[in-house]
Amino acid sequence: MDFVLKDEHGFSYIEKGEGEVLLLLHGLMGALSNWEDVIEEFSKEYRVIIPMLPIYDLPLLTTGVKSLAKYVHKFVIYKKLDNICLLGNSLGGHVALIYCLSHQEYVKSMVLTGSSGLYENSFGGTFPRRESYDFVKEKVEYTFYDPQTATKELIDEVFATVNDRHKVIRILAMAKSAIRHNMSKDLDKIRIPVSLIWGKNDKITPPEVAEEFHRLLPDSELHWVENCGHAPMMERPQVFNQLLKGFLAKTKA
Questions:
Q1: Cβ atoms within 10 A of the Cβ of 189, count?
Q2: 149-189, pLDDT tens digit by residue?
Q3: Once rounded to an integer, what is the mean pLDDT over residues 208-232?
Q4: What average pLDDT does range 138-144 have in this prediction?
Q5: Between 3.30.310.50, 3.40.50.1820, 1.10.3720.10, 3.40.50.720, what CATH number should domain 6-251 receive?
């Protein structure tokens, strides 16, 4: 699927379809293509929008999860969005939670998959062997239940990113910000319906993280995806999409 990236008013984003808004937020090492199957399936009935989060563009001193949530709000205001279903994977889930705490009136429902915000095994506190392709390949494969999901294209993309000094400094700053910003005491304030769609074999945000989110979020449901790691929408797209359809049907206006 070819993505047409729009650049307007300082925002880069993909938009496809019409109807209720699904706003998708990617992870720290994620790309817009991670949501390819979701876009393909849901743009037939929904207005699917994915903003590029400015992980590498923020000033180093303000690189953090709260800054990304502020960016999302500026984007929502610019696009005049309302009644949003917010979907977030990994760091994107964390940003969705922070955004929702401040601007719950814009969000109708939320879907979290492999979300940070409570605990995560980050990509690594440092990249001591970032010049080693095999090391990066091993780390990317660790994200998935089936290592074959880590395509050469994906590994090449991550390898290029972690060998860019400007980018890697911001990745580490963002990862530290996410670890520091634990949300356990705030989750009871989120009153909208939340669907947790979680890889049963997630090693980055393990199953107990999903169970803790489920316990702390007042209106949440938890669905497991078997034989699946940290990114169910990539590794088990058909199962993910089916679970997402069920949740959207329940919350549809």
A1: 12
A2: 999 999 999 899 888 888 888 888 888 888 888 999 999 99
A3: 97
A4: 92
A5: 3.40.50.1820
Q: Closest Cα to residue 157, out of 129, 137, 135, 134?
A: 137
Q: In what order do the strands lie in the sheet with 21-25?
A: 6-8, 11-16, 47-51, 21-25, 84-89, 107-113, 194-199, 220-225
Residue 102 identity (one-letter amino acid):
S
Domain assignments of the chain as residue spans, ordered by start = 6-251
Residues 28, 175: Cα–Cα separation, whole Å: 8
The residue type of 93 is: G
C-alpha span between 207 and 213 (Å, rounded): 10
What is the residue-averaged pLDDT of the chain? Answer: 91
Kindly state the percentage of the chain with pLDDT values over 70: 94
